[in-house]
Design goal:
Elements lengths: L16 H11 L2 H14 L3 E3 L10 H5 L14 E3 L34 H11 L4 H11 L12 H7 L8 H11 L12 H10 L8 H10 L1 H5 L3 H8 L3 H12 L15 E3 L3 E6 L2 E6 L7 E3 L1 H9 L6 H34 L1 H6 L9 H8 L3 H8 L3 E4 L2 E4 L7 E3 L5 E3 H13 L9 H10 L6 H10 L5 H4 L3
Parallel strand pairs: 4-7
Antiparallel strand pairs: 1-6, 2-3, 4-5, 7-8, 9-10
Helix pairs in contact: 1-14, 4-5, 5-7, 8-9, 9-12, 14-16, 16-17, 19-20
Length: 472
């Protein structure tokens, strides 16, 4: 091949270290931020914590030993939330309690737990994928929830990405396929059905009744959930013994592939924002006990003023870094407060009447009103919490899809879920409401929702179908 010279013009987005730090601090939760600050203070003698800062509030070792906190919070206490799953280490454990072993045993030190994101990123770093694909896959990994599901729609994610990156929907779909082939099987799924299918497709091809199990999950998962085994046998043309094997194959799958990486200890949430009623209106204020307060260490700063030798060049650099950190922390608090106030301003009726009064809200609406990028609003609303009279809620809770009404307006998906839950709570359990009946009731109220959407919302609230709710 004849060598040639080509001129290629491309755009590249370069971020300064200060801007990179600002973005990183913004996406950290309050607990993660405190850990990051502790690390930086150990490395930079020019920084010190304000004497009034209650660092013990964020001490994970101490909070684990606290008793159940009182429900009436003053903003200084952590809130306990329980996980809805548990891990069973009874099988396959390498730990031994045999104290009569004559051989010397090396003391076992518990390894630092690896998060799902760290585990996936480790696999990516060792793969032969292109750097571009690795970076796009990393974006998708950041959108996974603790159970390993992709919680953000690809089109919504695409809209949040800067145009300069040149990423299109095909790139995201290709990277999602790559992510879904990583370990643990089922990671990156967008719903339970896709999660189970990914795990089945990862099994050896000679697994007995594998194709039939795939067929059930792909087409008849709702039939299996309703325990209509007679219909399943007829659809698959199989006997009782085969059905038992198929059912065991499916029930042995993990519906939460990321749960093994989640911390099963009690989780504590420190609210970043406190919502209260002032002069008849709900307003947001920073929880000052959750805002890190840093100072410049004047002892070392005075040394820099008195000396100008090369030996003090390192301290001069650390002083600049300290000032940038303090500025970025102030910017983080300011941005969180601005976004929170914009949310509270639009959701006044929610604070008055609850979920049923939640109005439709998207990231773009807040971003445009505050002249911020959508990705910034997304970072602010992730792992940041608001203490309200209706509980402690993640800022992202106030956003969601919407459904059009026949009057030309829109109704929040959260409000529709609340309506569905309310209808089911009041139903006659001897004649429970079908999804189609619920859709008809909502239509009479001016909210047009498809039956399959009702089923989707019902399942998201872990409410069984009508035939399983029926009592005799």
């Amino acid at each position: 091949m004849k060598p040639t010279l080509q001129l290629k013009l491309s755009q590249q987005l370069n971020l300064t270290p200060q801007l990179q730090q600002s973005i990183r601090l913004l996406q950290l939760s309050t607990l993660e931020l405190n850990q990051e600050i502790e690390r930086i203070i150990q490395e930079n003698p020019l920084l010190e914590l304000n004497e009034g800062w209650n660092a013990k509030l964020f001490d994970s070792d101490e909070t684990k030993n606290q008793s159940q906190p009182d429900t009436a919070l003053d903003g200084k206490e952590a809130v306990q939330t329980d996980q809805d799953y548990s891990l069973d280490w009874s099988e396959g454990s390498t730990y031994s309690n045999n104290t009569h072993n004559d051989e010397y045993e090396i003391p076992q030190i518990a390894a630092e737990p690896v998060s799902l994101r760290e585990y996936l990123n480790q696999q990516i770093s060792l793969s032969h994928a292109s750097e571009r694909e690795k970076k796009i896959t990393t974006l998708l990994i950041d959108s996974l929830d603790d159970d390993g599901y992709l919680i953000q729609d690809l089109n919504e994610l695409l809209e949040m990405l800067p145009v300069e990156l040149g990423i299109n929907i095909d790139d995201l779909n290709q990277s999602l396929t790559y992510l879904q082939h990583l370990d643990p099987p089922g990671v990156g799924a967008r719903n339970l059905q896709e999660c189970l299918l990914l795990q089945l497709q990862n099994l050896p091809e000679d697994t007995p009744h594998l194709n039939q199990a795939i067929e059930i999950v792909a087409q008849y998962l709702d039939v299996l959930a309703s325990h209509d085994f007679t219909l399943i046998k007829r659809l698959l043309k199989c006997d009782d013994q085969s059905l038992r094997v198929i059912q065991k194959l499916i029930t042995n799958l993990n519906p939460k592939p990321g749960s093994d990486f989640s911390n099963t200890d009690t989780r504590y949430i420190i609210p970043d924002i406190i919502v209260s009623k002032v002069n008849g209106a709900w307003v947001a204020n920073l929880n000052m006990d959750a805002v890190p307060r840093l100072n410049i260490n004047h002892f070392y700063a005075n040394i820099l003023k008195q000396k100008h030798e090369e030996s003090s060049q390192g301290l001069s650099t650390q002083l600049t870094e300290a000032k940038w950190l303090i500025k970025n922390l102030q910017q983080r608090s300011s941005t969180i407060l601005k976004v929170s106030n914009a949310i509270v301003e639009r959701q006044q009726q929610f604070f008055e009447h609850g979920e049923i009064a939640m109005r439709p809200l998207i990231l773009r609406e807040i971003a445009e009103s505050l002249e911020l990028h959508e990705s910034t609003v997304s970072r602010v609303t992730t792992q940041k919490f608001m203490r309200t009279p209706r509980g402690i809620l993640e800022l992202k809770y106030f956003f969601g899809s919407h459904v059009a009404t026949d009057t030309g307006g829109a109704c929040s998906a959260t409000a529709i879920r609340a309506l569905i839950k309310q209808l089911i709570q009041k139903e006659n359990t001897k004649k429970p409401l079908s999804d189609n009946k619920i859709a008809n009731i909502l239509e009479e109220q001016g909210i047009v929702v498809a039956r399959r959407t009702i089923a989707k919302y019902r399942e998201s609230m872990h409410i069984p179908p009508a035939n399983l709710r029926k009592t005799f």
